[in-house]
Amino acid sequence: MELKLIRLEELYINELTKIMERAFDEDARIHLGEKKGGPDGYDDGSFLRKWGMHKNASSYCIFLNKQLIGGVILWINEDNNNFLGNIFIDPIYENQGLGTKVWNMIEKLYPNTKTWNTETPIFSSRNHNFYVNKCGFHIVKIDNPKNRLEGQYKMQKAMK
After folding, report:
1. pLDDT digits over 87-110, tens only?
2. For residues 89 and 78, what is the distance between their CA atoms, to the nearest angstrom?
3. What count of other Cβ atoms lies within 10 Å of the Cβ of residue 21?
């Protein structure tokens, strides 16, 4: 099994958008009983063009045995308090430990990181399990805790 991170380029946007759409729609189906759901532009490429191709983002395509299976958008800051914007894997490749392996690769890519920060919707218990139990993040703040759709868990992982 060969898992690789390749810098996101425009040529990957269309295929990666389809993967992102499947991943977010699966989350909406599981947690909200909805057929579709994700951040603005997740299903038309504009999210990846805006955030993934942003000049300050470090964005990667995730490849498994030369097959594009997902993506990750990172914000690497001068003070080494970095931010995971998002990470997603095609649902057909989920629950195989690949997300955890990708996260370990990211940590190795950025060894000077002091803290990793991220946020995820309150409703997405699979994300909570991934970030807390698999990657070692801790919930440090809850925004809008009573709003299942708008609420966010703010998470952080302090590095050694």
Report:
1. 999 999 999 999 999 999 999 999
2. 28
3. 18
Q: What is the layout of strands, in order, in the sheet containing 115-121?
A: 3-7, 57-64, 67-75, 81-89, 115-121, 152-158, 138-143
Q: Tokens 């308090």 — which residue?
A: 81
From residue 143, alpha-carbon distances to 24, 105, 121, 146, 151 in Å are: 21, 29, 10, 9, 5
Q: What's the predicted TM-score (pTM) here?
A: 0.95
- Residue 48 phi/psi, 5° resolution? -65, -35
Give the integer Cα–Cα distance in Å for 83 and 108.
15
